[in-house]
Write a structure and sequence with these properties.
With 147 residues, the protein is mostly helical. The protein is built from six helices and no strands. Helix content is 83%, strand content 0%.
Length: 147
Amino acid sequence: MAFVLTLAFVNGCATVISKMINYRCTKILGTYNGSLVNYVVATVLSFVLLLCSSRLNIDFYAFSKAPWWMYLGGAFGIIAFLISMVTLSRLKVMESTILLLIGQLTAGILFDAFLFKNFNLPKLAGILLVAGGIIWDNKISSSAQES
């Protein structure tokens, strides 16, 4: 379990590092060219990892049997990428990351509630507490900058 928790932590760090690298890329190349670079590199790397995998098994028939909505992951990925690049130009990295986390937690609670019929009030309270902290921090920061 410790290994999985460590992987989750490393994933969080990698997400922020990726966001910052991609942000710099879009500042140089533009938002859409930067997103193209991001996804082309990811596609090539995914293909290389697949080729290096001991489970090399590209099953094109399985692709044709998959429900249409399973292909929306890439669409939501590019939407999330573009939104991240726009927000990073206007928010601090910490604010952007915390708001991303709040959005993920909110979506998780909604999926749990509607798909799995499992609503968790303490988690909702935690999200509201973190959101309140961000609002409070923004008010304090803007007051300090004005003085």
